[in-house]
Design goal:
By secondary structure, this protein is mostly helical. It is built from 10 helices and no strands.
Amino acid sequence: MPDPHREYDDHMADPLTSAEQRTLARISRFGWSLLAVWVSVLIIWAVVQPVPYAQGWRLVVELLFVGRLVNIADGMANGFSRIYLFIQSAPQDLILLLIFYPLIIRAYHGAVQRKLIGNTINRLRKSAERQKHIVEPFGALGLWIFVFFPFWSTGSLIGGIVGYLIGLRTWVTFASVFTGHIVSVVALIWFFDGMTHLLEVFEQGIVRFLPWLVIGFLLVLTLLLRLIRKTSRIIHHTDSE
C-alpha cells in the first residue's frame, strides 16, 4: 500500500501523489463507514435497554474530552457492562484516527486549506509535535507504549500523527496505534472490574469511589513527574550557565 508519509516543510510541502491520495481516501471512507455502524449499535442498545445505556452519550463525551481512563472508570461505576464499555470505548478513538488522519496528512502537504479545519488541525499538530521526541527513539514500540498509557494527549489520534512525524510507514503506525489502544481499553476494563469485585468483599460502600481514587492517584503521579522534569530542566539550565 502506498505510504503517504513524506518529509515535510510547513511552507513548501511536496504534493501527494494520486496513489497516496487514494490510500488516504480509502482510510477516510472506512472511518466514516465504521462511524455509521458504531453509532447505530449504540442507539439500538440505548433503545432496547435504556437503563443505563441511554446515558451512553455521556461516556462518548468523556472519552472525547478527558480520555479513556475517566470514560471506563465512570462506566464501571454506573453499571455499564464490560462488553458495552469495550464496544463504546475501543472503536471511538480509532474512528477519530481514521477520519482525521487523512485530513491532517493532506493539510501537511497543502492538499487542503488549513482554514477549513482551522484551529483543530493546528492544536492536534502542535500536541503531536510536543510528544514526538518521547516516541522517536523507540520507533513502533515507543508509539505502542505511548498510546497504551491512558494519560491526556496520548490517544490514538495524537499517536497516529506522531507516527507520521517520526517517519513510520502508515501500516506500522496504524498497527501500533490500533493494538495499543485496544489492549489499553481491555486492561482498564479488567482492572476496574477486578478491583470492584475485590472491594465488594470488604466494603460495599467504597466501591463507588474506587475509580475516582485511582484517577486521583494517577493525576497526582502525572503532576509529580511533570514537576520533576521541570525542576531537572531548571537545574540543567542553571548548571550550563
